[in-house]
Amino acid sequence: IIHIDIDASEINKNVIVDYSLVGDAKDILGLIAEKVQPNERKEWMDQIREWQKEDYKPTDDDSVLKPHQIMKVISDNIGEDGIIVTDVGQHQMWAAQYNGRVKSRHFITSGGLGAMGFGYGAAIGTKVANPDKTVIHVTGDGSFNMNLNEVITAVNNGIKIITVLFNNKALGMVRQWQHHFYGDRFSQTDLFRKTDYLKLADAFGAKGYHCENLSEFKEAFKEALDADTSVIIECVIDRDERVLPLIPAGGTIEDIIMD
User: Fold this and answer.
1) Residue 73 lies in a domain
2) Are both 98 and 197 inside the same structural domain?
3) Of the candidates 93, 173, 103, 171, which has an alpha carbon nearest to the alpha carbon of residue 138?
4) What's the total number of domains in the chain?
5) Torsion angle defined by CA atoms of residues 30, 35, 41 and 44, in that order, rounded to the nearest 10 degrees
Protein backbone atom coordinates (compact mmCIF):
# COMPACT_ATOMS: atom_id res chain seq x y z
CA ILE A 1 0.00 0.00 0.00
CA ILE A 2 1.30 3.44 -0.98
CA HIS A 3 -0.23 6.34 0.97
CA ILE A 4 -0.05 9.79 -0.62
CA ASP A 5 -1.09 12.69 1.60
CA ILE A 6 -0.27 16.37 1.83
CA ASP A 7 -0.56 16.10 5.63
CA ALA A 8 2.21 14.00 7.20
CA SER A 9 0.13 13.43 10.35
CA GLU A 10 -2.33 11.33 8.32
CA ILE A 11 0.29 8.73 7.37
CA ASN A 12 -0.29 5.38 9.13
CA LYS A 13 -3.16 6.96 11.08
CA ASN A 14 -5.73 4.27 10.26
CA VAL A 15 -3.87 1.71 8.14
CA ILE A 16 -0.18 0.84 8.32
CA VAL A 17 1.23 1.28 4.82
CA ASP A 18 4.27 -0.02 2.96
CA TYR A 19 5.33 3.32 1.50
CA SER A 20 4.37 6.88 2.38
CA LEU A 21 4.72 9.92 0.15
CA VAL A 22 4.01 13.35 1.62
CA GLY A 23 3.16 16.04 -0.90
CA ASP A 24 0.66 17.28 -3.46
CA ALA A 25 -1.14 14.30 -5.00
CA LYS A 26 -1.18 15.99 -8.41
CA ASP A 27 2.60 16.25 -8.50
CA ILE A 28 3.26 12.80 -7.02
CA LEU A 29 0.76 10.97 -9.21
CA GLY A 30 2.18 12.70 -12.27
CA LEU A 31 5.62 11.33 -11.46
CA ILE A 32 4.23 7.85 -10.78
CA ALA A 33 2.24 7.88 -14.02
CA GLU A 34 5.45 8.37 -15.99
CA LYS A 35 6.73 5.03 -14.66
CA VAL A 36 3.54 2.96 -14.90
CA GLN A 37 2.76 0.77 -17.89
CA PRO A 38 -0.86 0.16 -18.97
CA ASN A 39 -2.33 -3.14 -17.81
CA GLU A 40 -5.92 -3.90 -18.76
CA ARG A 41 -6.04 -7.18 -16.80
CA LYS A 42 -8.54 -8.44 -19.36
CA GLU A 43 -8.43 -12.09 -18.26
CA TRP A 44 -9.03 -11.15 -14.62
CA MET A 45 -11.89 -8.79 -15.48
CA ASP A 46 -13.48 -11.44 -17.72
CA GLN A 47 -13.27 -13.90 -14.82
CA ILE A 48 -14.97 -11.43 -12.48
CA ARG A 49 -17.79 -10.85 -14.99
CA GLU A 50 -18.25 -14.62 -15.28
CA TRP A 51 -18.48 -15.00 -11.50
CA GLN A 52 -21.05 -12.20 -11.44
CA LYS A 53 -23.21 -14.07 -13.94
CA GLU A 54 -22.83 -17.46 -12.25
CA ASP A 55 -22.98 -16.57 -8.57
CA TYR A 56 -25.34 -13.64 -8.29
CA LYS A 57 -28.41 -13.41 -10.48
CA PRO A 58 -30.99 -10.85 -9.28
CA THR A 59 -34.55 -12.02 -9.87
CA ASP A 60 -36.81 -10.10 -12.25
CA ASP A 61 -40.33 -9.25 -11.09
CA ASP A 62 -42.33 -6.89 -13.29
CA SER A 63 -45.18 -6.66 -10.77
CA VAL A 64 -43.02 -4.56 -8.43
CA LEU A 65 -39.90 -2.44 -8.81
CA LYS A 66 -36.52 -4.14 -8.55
CA PRO A 67 -33.37 -1.96 -8.46
CA HIS A 68 -31.60 -3.84 -11.26
CA GLN A 69 -34.63 -3.52 -13.53
CA ILE A 70 -34.94 0.21 -12.85
CA MET A 71 -31.30 0.71 -13.81
CA LYS A 72 -31.70 -1.36 -16.97
CA VAL A 73 -34.58 0.85 -18.13
CA ILE A 74 -32.48 3.94 -17.48
CA SER A 75 -29.42 2.58 -19.30
CA ASP A 76 -31.40 1.27 -22.26
CA ASN A 77 -33.00 4.69 -22.78
CA ILE A 78 -30.05 7.04 -22.27
CA GLY A 79 -27.33 4.91 -23.86
CA GLU A 80 -23.63 5.62 -23.45
CA ASP A 81 -24.03 9.37 -23.93
CA GLY A 82 -26.34 10.02 -21.00
CA ILE A 83 -24.81 10.84 -17.62
CA ILE A 84 -25.84 9.19 -14.35
CA VAL A 85 -25.18 11.09 -11.11
CA THR A 86 -25.87 9.41 -7.77
CA ASP A 87 -26.33 10.30 -4.15
CA VAL A 88 -24.97 7.98 -1.44
CA GLY A 89 -26.55 4.77 -0.19
CA GLN A 90 -27.95 1.51 -1.56
CA HIS A 91 -29.17 3.21 -4.73
CA GLN A 92 -25.57 4.30 -5.38
CA MET A 93 -24.35 0.70 -5.25
CA TRP A 94 -27.18 -0.55 -7.47
CA ALA A 95 -26.47 2.22 -9.98
CA ALA A 96 -22.80 1.21 -10.07
CA GLN A 97 -23.58 -2.50 -10.39
CA TYR A 98 -26.34 -2.35 -12.96
CA ASN A 99 -26.00 0.76 -15.11
CA GLY A 100 -24.22 -1.44 -17.66
CA ARG A 101 -22.36 1.33 -19.44
CA VAL A 102 -18.62 1.83 -19.91
CA LYS A 103 -18.06 5.37 -21.21
CA SER A 104 -15.70 7.30 -18.94
CA ARG A 105 -16.90 10.38 -17.02
CA HIS A 106 -20.53 9.40 -17.52
CA PHE A 107 -21.06 7.95 -14.04
CA ILE A 108 -20.55 10.56 -11.34
CA THR A 109 -20.69 9.60 -7.69
CA SER A 110 -19.20 10.43 -4.29
CA GLY A 111 -17.13 7.40 -3.37
CA GLY A 112 -16.29 8.27 0.22
CA LEU A 113 -17.15 10.19 3.37
CA GLY A 114 -20.82 9.15 3.26
CA ALA A 115 -21.75 12.35 1.44
CA MET A 116 -25.53 11.97 1.46
CA GLY A 117 -27.20 14.86 -0.35
CA PHE A 118 -24.32 15.15 -2.84
CA GLY A 119 -26.35 14.09 -5.85
CA TYR A 120 -28.70 16.90 -6.80
CA GLY A 121 -26.11 19.66 -6.67
CA ALA A 122 -23.71 17.46 -8.60
CA ALA A 123 -26.42 16.78 -11.18
CA ILE A 124 -27.02 20.51 -11.63
CA GLY A 125 -23.31 21.11 -12.16
CA THR A 126 -23.11 18.19 -14.57
CA LYS A 127 -26.03 19.48 -16.64
CA VAL A 128 -24.62 23.01 -16.78
CA ALA A 129 -21.32 21.58 -18.03
CA ASN A 130 -23.09 19.24 -20.48
CA PRO A 131 -26.26 21.06 -21.60
CA ASP A 132 -26.84 18.78 -24.58
CA LYS A 133 -26.69 15.53 -22.59
CA THR A 134 -29.38 13.78 -20.58
CA VAL A 135 -28.54 13.88 -16.86
CA ILE A 136 -30.16 11.32 -14.56
CA HIS A 137 -30.00 11.86 -10.81
CA VAL A 138 -30.32 8.50 -9.00
CA THR A 139 -31.11 8.92 -5.31
CA GLY A 140 -32.84 7.44 -2.28
CA ASP A 141 -35.39 9.02 0.03
CA GLY A 142 -32.74 9.45 2.73
CA SER A 143 -30.27 11.33 0.53
CA PHE A 144 -32.88 13.27 -1.44
CA ASN A 145 -34.50 14.74 1.68
CA MET A 146 -31.18 16.31 2.68
CA ASN A 147 -30.99 18.73 -0.27
CA LEU A 148 -34.36 18.52 -1.99
CA ASN A 149 -34.63 22.33 -1.97
CA GLU A 150 -32.16 22.39 -4.87
CA VAL A 151 -34.98 21.30 -7.18
CA ILE A 152 -36.06 24.96 -7.01
CA THR A 153 -32.61 26.00 -8.25
CA ALA A 154 -32.86 23.66 -11.23
CA VAL A 155 -36.41 24.69 -12.16
CA ASN A 156 -35.81 28.43 -11.76
CA ASN A 157 -32.72 28.29 -13.95
CA GLY A 158 -34.15 25.99 -16.62
CA ILE A 159 -31.73 23.18 -15.79
CA LYS A 160 -33.49 19.91 -16.55
CA ILE A 161 -32.66 17.11 -14.13
CA ILE A 162 -34.47 13.75 -14.15
CA THR A 163 -34.48 12.38 -10.60
CA VAL A 164 -35.12 8.66 -10.11
CA LEU A 165 -35.86 8.28 -6.40
CA PHE A 166 -35.63 4.82 -4.81
CA ASN A 167 -38.11 5.10 -1.94
CA ASN A 168 -37.98 2.34 0.67
CA LYS A 169 -38.90 4.67 3.55
CA ALA A 170 -35.64 3.75 5.26
CA LEU A 171 -31.97 4.57 5.50
CA GLY A 172 -31.37 1.44 3.47
CA MET A 173 -27.59 1.00 3.58
CA VAL A 174 -27.37 1.45 7.35
CA ARG A 175 -30.44 -0.75 7.79
CA GLN A 176 -28.78 -3.48 5.73
CA TRP A 177 -25.69 -3.35 7.96
CA GLN A 178 -27.92 -3.58 11.02
CA HIS A 179 -29.42 -6.72 9.46
CA HIS A 180 -26.11 -8.40 8.60
CA PHE A 181 -23.97 -7.39 11.57
CA TYR A 182 -26.29 -6.38 14.42
CA GLY A 183 -28.90 -9.13 14.53
CA ASP A 184 -31.73 -7.12 12.96
CA ARG A 185 -31.61 -4.61 15.81
CA PHE A 186 -32.87 -1.75 13.67
CA SER A 187 -32.37 1.70 15.17
CA GLN A 188 -33.32 5.02 13.57
CA THR A 189 -33.33 3.53 10.06
CA ASP A 190 -37.04 2.77 9.50
CA LEU A 191 -38.21 6.28 8.75
CA PHE A 192 -41.74 5.72 7.43
CA ARG A 193 -41.75 9.22 5.98
CA LYS A 194 -45.07 10.46 4.66
CA THR A 195 -43.53 12.77 2.07
CA ASP A 196 -45.78 13.15 -0.99
CA TYR A 197 -43.24 13.52 -3.78
CA LEU A 198 -45.90 14.31 -6.38
CA LYS A 199 -47.05 17.34 -4.38
CA LEU A 200 -43.44 18.24 -3.67
CA ALA A 201 -42.54 18.21 -7.37
CA ASP A 202 -45.59 20.32 -8.16
CA ALA A 203 -44.75 22.82 -5.42
CA PHE A 204 -41.26 23.25 -6.88
CA GLY A 205 -42.53 23.65 -10.44
CA ALA A 206 -41.22 20.25 -11.51
CA LYS A 207 -43.14 17.26 -12.84
CA GLY A 208 -43.73 14.26 -10.58
CA TYR A 209 -44.51 10.56 -11.03
CA HIS A 210 -45.25 7.77 -8.56
CA CYS A 211 -44.39 4.23 -9.71
CA GLU A 212 -44.96 0.87 -8.05
CA ASN A 213 -44.25 -1.57 -10.91
CA LEU A 214 -42.01 -1.83 -13.94
CA SER A 215 -44.57 -0.82 -16.57
CA GLU A 216 -45.42 2.35 -14.64
CA PHE A 217 -41.75 3.23 -14.40
CA LYS A 218 -41.11 2.61 -18.09
CA GLU A 219 -43.96 4.94 -19.02
CA ALA A 220 -42.92 7.61 -16.52
CA PHE A 221 -39.30 7.52 -17.64
CA LYS A 222 -40.30 7.82 -21.28
CA GLU A 223 -42.41 10.89 -20.49
CA ALA A 224 -39.62 12.34 -18.35
CA LEU A 225 -37.19 12.24 -21.25
CA ASP A 226 -39.64 14.32 -23.31
CA ALA A 227 -40.52 16.77 -20.52
CA ASP A 228 -39.43 20.40 -20.73
CA THR A 229 -38.69 20.76 -17.02
CA SER A 230 -37.08 18.86 -14.17
CA VAL A 231 -38.76 15.61 -13.16
CA ILE A 232 -39.01 13.54 -9.97
CA ILE A 233 -39.90 9.86 -10.44
CA GLU A 234 -40.64 8.14 -7.13
CA CYS A 235 -39.96 4.40 -7.32
CA VAL A 236 -41.42 2.42 -4.43
CA ILE A 237 -39.12 -0.48 -3.53
CA ASP A 238 -39.15 -3.04 -0.73
CA ARG A 239 -37.17 -1.99 2.34
CA ASP A 240 -35.62 -5.48 2.45
CA GLU A 241 -33.98 -5.13 -0.98
CA ARG A 242 -30.25 -5.49 -0.35
CA VAL A 243 -27.00 -4.61 -2.06
CA LEU A 244 -25.26 -7.89 -2.85
CA PRO A 245 -22.57 -9.16 -2.95
CA LEU A 246 -21.26 -7.31 0.12
CA ILE A 247 -17.82 -7.33 1.74
CA PRO A 248 -17.83 -6.25 5.41
CA ALA A 249 -15.77 -3.25 6.48
CA GLY A 250 -12.17 -4.35 6.92
CA GLY A 251 -12.97 -7.73 5.38
CA THR A 252 -11.57 -9.51 2.34
CA ILE A 253 -13.07 -11.42 -0.56
CA GLU A 254 -13.08 -14.46 1.72
CA ASP A 255 -15.71 -12.72 3.89
CA ILE A 256 -18.07 -11.91 1.02
CA ILE A 257 -21.82 -12.03 1.77
CA MET A 258 -23.95 -13.39 -1.07
CA ASP A 259 -27.43 -13.48 0.50
Assistant:
1) yes
2) yes
3) 93
4) 2
5) -90
